[in-house]
Amino acid sequence: MTWTWFHRLASPPYVYALAARLTPWFAWPAGLLIAAGLWGGLVLAPPDYQQGDGFRIIYVHAPSAWMSLMVYTTMALAAAVGLIWRIKVAHAVAASCAPVGASFTFAALVTGALWGEPMWGTYWEWDPRLTSELILLFLYLGYMGLRSALEDATRADRASALLAVVGVVNVPIIHYSVTWWNSLHQAPSVMRLSKPAMPASMLVPLMMMLLGFTLFFAAVLLVRLRGEVLTRERSASWVREALSA
Amino acid sequence: MRSAATPATRAPSALQPAAEERAASVDTPPVIVIHPATPLSAARLALARDLRLAFRKRGQLVQPLAFFALVTLLFPLAVSPEMARLRDIAPGVLWVAALLASLLALEFLFRDDAHDGTLEQYAISGQSLISLVFAKIVAHWLLTGVPLALMAPLAGLSLGVPVAALPGVILSVAVGTIALSLIGSIGAALTLGVKRSGALLALLTLPLSLPVLIFGARATQLAITAGPLLAPLELLAALAVLGATLAPIAAAAALRISLE
Amino acid sequence: MRSFLDMGGYAAFVWPAYAVTLAVIVLNVVWARRALARSRTAARQRQDRGETP
User: Fold this and answer.
1) Of A43, A115, B219, B244, which has the fewest beta carbons less than 10 angstroms from its beta carbon?
2) Helix, strand, or coil (residue A196)
3) Cβ pair C42:A230 closer than 8 A
4) Which residues of A touch C40 (CB under 8 A)?
């Protein structure tokens, strides 16, 4: 009884309709949170005593970096579900994640470089965190490249799913690289629960941006998922009704 | 009167369970008695087969080595012929060249067997595909990694690496290429049968091979400066061990996906 | 307003960073919607051609 909702999630027509209904519930809050976070971060938050107004890049850099990791983890989880239980919808979710994750990894690298130049004196440094984040971008590109190179849809799904799962080892490496190695990149200051290093006026907009970006990902994922589900379902009869809706 | 069963002596069916067949007369069907082969014996046979076949096509074996030599040659011409400068970049050059040569060689890890159907036989043989894949990877390393390690001193000397550092160079390349063969097998299995898969294979393999590159270059650097090269060497060995436990599983799974 | 745009001297870094990120956000929206529209068109064409499962 309690598992029926789970089984329904494997049903393409159900997912197609559900995704359409849910999208606005993620999209609008995402927009509001991002707008509020931008206002709080750019206008309301006081300048940092060390970095001045330059620190405000954190409000786009940290959420982008968070997205790059979170999206990959989601992709790998969906891929694993698809591989283990052979659920096509799970593969559709994984495929939907990849372009979003790749673009935010790119954003994280670029915003990080723009932050690094005034603060560390260099746009780039081959330290563990930056290098592994770059590797993450290549993992995304490899995933998308493998998908497009394989013509058979099922093989493309399963092969890229395996690749996603194998590559997930990179995610903890990126996250913990700043604690495991002496790195140019700063140690985690936000996620320390004992004593956050940031005052509330700076922290709250950051939290809003992080949450807003996450909800944004959910909305984009739902839109892409509908397209992926349609493509996979070839000519199933439910598609006719769904298209006219 | 029925004649006694004659066991099959040779093993074209070495990977299939060995069978004894009764000399069939017209009325009676043959009786098959199964002597199951063990994963280890199957793997040994796969390894021997790969080595034997590779030696028949010696030209193919030389290609990665020639590529390695050529790439190393490019740097003195492109950067600077000064030995002092070359010595500085030698570890990096050697390792990038070794990495690229390994990538080149990876393309024929599964290609021929996929082409003639052997790979499918391996998959349906009932033997552990993981151990067969592991055997193929060992063969690949013996055919590619070891020769690269033996060639590395020559390339190193041409880049100003001191003679005293050469044993360290050989050792680090030998150990590092184990991990490269292991990691590369996953990408090779995923791209099985894809036309012109070279760039895609590189895109899939290089990100996961970067730790090997980093530690290998560091080991070579320490060999040149006569520093404590045991530490990165141990890390290379650790990567090889980790790869040996995980990569064949992933590669076998990837093969099954590709052969489906 | 001038000091806001100036970002304490860091304007050359802060504003491009925000521009890139907002561009990525907009790109994702456009890209996703376009992908969905393409899938819908392709599915409609398949339905019209009468391809049955």
Assistant:
1) A43
2) coil
3) yes
4) 227, 230, 243
Of B207, B244, B213, the C-alpha closest to A164 is B207
**How far is residue A33 from each of residues A30, A163, B48, measured CA to CA in Å?**
5, 34, 63
Pairing of strands B5-7, B18-22: antiparallel
Q: What is the pTM of this model?
A: 0.84
Among C8, C40, C42, the residue with its CB nearest the CB of A47 is: C8
Could you give the dihedral angle defined by the CA atoms of residues A205, A206, A211 and A213, in that order, rounded to the nearest 10 degrees?
Answer: 100
Measured CA to CA, the distance from residue B79 to residue B224 in angstroms comes to 20
Half-sphere exposure of residue A138: CA atoms within 13 angstroms, side-chain side: 19
- Are the Cβ atoms of B207 and A138 closer than 8 angstroms? yes
Which residue of chain C is at minimal alpha-carbon distance from A44? C4
Per-residue pLDDT of chain A (245 residues; tens, 9 = 90+): 557 777 788 888 889 999 999 999 999 999 999 999 999 988 888 888 787 888 889 999 999 999 999 999 999 999 999 999 999 999 999 999 999 999 999 999 999 999 888 888 877 877 777 888 888 999 999 999 999 999 899 999 999 999 999 999 888 877 777 676 666 666 555 444 444 567 888 889 999 999 999 999 999 999 999 999 998 886 677 877 777 76
Q: Which residues of chain B neighbour A158 with C-beta distances below 8 Å?
A: 257, 260
SS3 assignment, position C28? helix
Mutate to test the interface with A, among B200, B239, B242 (most CBs of A within 10 A): B200
Domain ranges (residues) in chain A: 22-186+197-244
Q: Do B260 and A155 touch (CB under 8 A)?
A: yes
Using a CB-CB cut-off of 8 Å, the residues of chain C touching A104 are 24
Q: What chains are in contact with C, requiring at least 3 Cβ pairs below 8 Å?
A: A
What are the residue boundaries of the structural domains of chain B, listed by start?
5-35, 39-259
Structure tokens at B104: 């080149």
